[in-house]
Amino acid sequence: MGFAVAATAVKPFLLIRANHSTALDLSSDRTGGSVSRSKKNFVFVVNPRGANGCTGREWKKLLPYLRTRLGEHCNIYESITSGPLHGVDITREAIKEGVDAVVAVGGDGTLHEVINGFFWEGQPVAALGQGLKPSTTLGVSDVLIPLGTASDFARTFSWRNDPNEAIERIQRGLKSKLDVGIITGQTGEHHFFINVADIHLSAKAGYYASKYKGFGNFCYVLGALRAFIGHESRNLKVKIDDGQWEVFHNVTAICIGNGKYFGGGMKITPTADPSSGKLEVVILQDFKWYDFVFKLHKLYNGSHISEKNVCLKR
């Protein structure tokens, strides 16, 4: 599914295209590579500052149990991130070494970095000596260990925020395919995402929410309310797939997802499917702060799409 958006002004302030999702195969058996093959090799990418520091504390308690459950069949390598985007570099290096899986330990931010680490200059990263053939399992839909503030992507699969259950999924070897959305910027650079990519107010809300992490999931509500201060809706031109450009007036936010939830449990793209090959687009028009407050329950249960100022595109 293709999606493009631009401002209606003479010089676009924003131009992003979400190309047809790229399916990552999580089901192939791997051989070869530069690391030991006597056991499976799993790299766990841990953001110790996630969930206001809770991720790091919980990981230390979880690691002995993880080694007990998986140590007989897997070599477990923990990689602690030291700052923003470090997870991208860790993931790329692990893939080049030919590990069997890279597992995100944390929330959606950690997961986002791991996803982008699977790609370089728009192409999948491959193990050294294996040419262009990817050789590493993406530890996301089947082996994400949710220890973040929201862990919204896990909600799409109805997983509880329980790391012990995640370890059981890893041990059972559950595998599937997952689509990855591609965003192409004005200069041609590629950025990758799963779950939900958002534009305008909701993107600002995510930034402000990071300043209220001490409030747990409620930080996203606080972030959204803060984002409304000084916010101005814009007229945007939108094109989906090979359709015509269509003008949407007074756009407050656009959310593009292959997962259902964002913002600590808001069911923003309620019928999205991570493996359908399609993205779901929700456009909020002329939303005021009081609309957000009084319709908040609808955002959480997915019934907001019935509102007259909400447009759903597939």
From TrEMBL:
Alphabetic keyword roster: ATP-binding, Kinase, Nucleotide-binding, Transferase
Domain DAGKc: 36-187
Record-annotated membrane-spanning stretches: none
Cross-referenced Pfam families: DAGK_cat (PF00781), YegS_C (PF19279)
Protein name as catalogued: DAGKc domain-containing protein
Gene Ontology BP annotations: sphingolipid metabolic process
PANTHER family, per the entry: SPHINGOSINE KINASE, SPHINGOSINE KINASE RELATED PROTEIN
GO CC terms, sorted: membrane
Single GO MF annotation: ATP binding
